Amino acid sequence: TVIANLKWMVPDATKGQVEAAAKAAYAHEFITQMPKGYDSVIGDRGVKLSGGQRQRLALARMILQNPEIIILDEPTSALDAESESKVQEAITGFIKGKTVVVISHRASLLTDIQRVYLIQDGAITVVDRKG
């Protein structure tokens, strides 16, 4: 179910905490439109969900877990423009004050990043954005 998926890393989370994380990840709306809402079956590995929906559930799980260090590997790679915008907004709102490593080919994801390491042609270049 959706709720079991979201509570995977935080099994003691309350329904209110789960819903707050889903709202922060822009997932609550599509979840509540499903036949059984948070109790809807989504299948193994989310096979009944779109790429954008799976990404937003993954973000909701991360938000619920609230880690101090976050690694995001191509977090918007398979998304349409609308889903990418929502996922990017959710990420931007959540990462403040955290250590974040973002691996991305999309420069739009790097606007609020303090330091960018560019790997190109076997060389690493540091691009200091705010220092």
Structure description:
One of its GO terms (molecular function) is ABC-type oligopeptide transporter activity. Pfam families: ABC_tran. It comes from marine sediment metagenome. The chain is α+β, with helices and mostly antiparallel strands and 131 residues long. It has a single domain, classed as 3-Layer(aba) Sandwich (Rossmann fold), CATH 3.40.50. The protein contains five helices and four strands; from the N terminus they run ααααβαβββ. Strands 1-2 form a two-stranded parallel ribbon. The protein has a two-stranded antiparallel ribbon with strand order 3-4. The longest helix has 15 residues.
Helical run tally: 5
Q: H/E series, N to C?
A: HHHHEHEEE
Mean pLDDT: 86
CATH topology: Rossmann fold
The best one-word shape is elongated
Could you say what the CATH architecture is?
3-Layer(aba) Sandwich
Write down the domain tally. 1
SS-derived structural category: alpha+beta
In what range is the share of β-strand residues? 15-25%
Give the low-pLDDT segments.
none
Alpha-carbon distance between the two ends: 45 Å
**Largest sheet descriptor:** 2 strands, parallel
Q: What is the class in the CATH system?
A: Alpha Beta
Number of strands: 4
Give the proportion of residues in helices: 25-40%
What would CATH call the homologous superfamily?
P-loop containing nucleotide triphosphate hydrolases
Strand order of the largest sheet: 1-2
